[in-house]
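Before going further, it is useful to explain how the protein records used in this thesis are read. An example of such a record is reproduced below.

***
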Amino acid sequence: MHDHDGPAPTTDPLRRVLWWDRLLADDPGAAPPRPPLDGDTTADVVVVGAGLTGLWAAYYLLDADPSLDVLVVDAGRSGAGTAGRSTGAAPAGRPAAVAHAPAAERELRAALRDSVVELGGVLAAEEIDAGFLYGGLVRLARTGPAVDRLAADAAAAPQRGDEVHLLDPVAAGRYVHADGVLAATWTPDAAHVDPLRLVRGLAHVVELRGGRVAEHTRALRVAPRAVVTDQGTVRARHVVVTGGALAVPGSPVPVVRRPVRLLATGALPGDVWDALGLRTGVTVVEDRNRPLTLVRTADDRLVAGGAPGVPERVPQLLPALHDHAVRHTWDAAVTTAADGRRTVGLDRGTGLAWSVGGGPDGHDGAAVTNLAGRVLADLLTGTESPLVGLPWVATAPAAGHRPGVRTAVPRAAVRGAAAAWADRVEERRGRT
């Protein structure tokens, strides 16, 4: 596997992203930009950020109450941010990093597993052609500490209600032929989608249901029941802030931004896929402190993603790719909570709602963001559903934190360096 074999697809930076290049190659007019906000306005709910969580929240709000005036604003084009730049993996998520009571953990895990099914159901019902495909998720261990982590996860899975099978190297080879695998796990609760077609399709459905989506409208400040943008001020009963928009001044929770590097090969011939043994739709994750995620697309490309420097591990993991060129490389930045905890919440006193991810890789995927959007919709409509009782849900921002992204930036660098150091220790010395 080596660098670009020839020029980039185009001078258009969006077309460096595989999903954008495929979309625009099929139809150059497939994604016309939406107009920006036209001056000051009002809404029942304004969602800052047209990423997946924000769009899911808008979708379910309009599903619950079609009379609501829901406005989504985004600094760029929907799908041009992180949501349209992922690998497209849609797993049910990993067990919570923070311990919860056993009953609460089981409820959360059940909701996350259901979110994969819900994702596929909505795409079918709304006729969004995002290539949804169940394939399951394989986690690979290539060091002793990783084996211990996977074994512990598989042993605890029945108590959480999860289906996780611990595999030896031979059984792991039924899913992918990777080098140096000591053990693996497999779970069926994962799917794959084209993330850009999902985002664009969902934004279109929100508009069909009466919502408004304003692109090229940058939020300058978030305040209780108002958002100041470069195109005008929006006043609303509720303000929802998600994803990268949580870096906007006035947002209710502190966050960090973590860089992600992704790459994609060209379409690989059948004999290479026979050597790799990877089926379409299956998600593969190498279990490390800085994990590597791999998927096979519907058009037989391999897409890899992880922290900068991590995707370059692909030839070590899959030697059959040594002689095949990388055709697309692109970057993204995922936003996670400064304390590493995922929270979805609503401060009823200020009308500010939020959703922020956690975890080492920071990117939750389409299924987990679907659940977050449903939780937000239930909170904002006052629906007393089981979802609002999940341990993710908060009724106020965490005490003692100053919102914003600036104070959290050093933590991101320190955590990234610590994770890279931990991987080196685990690989060389065989200890956690």
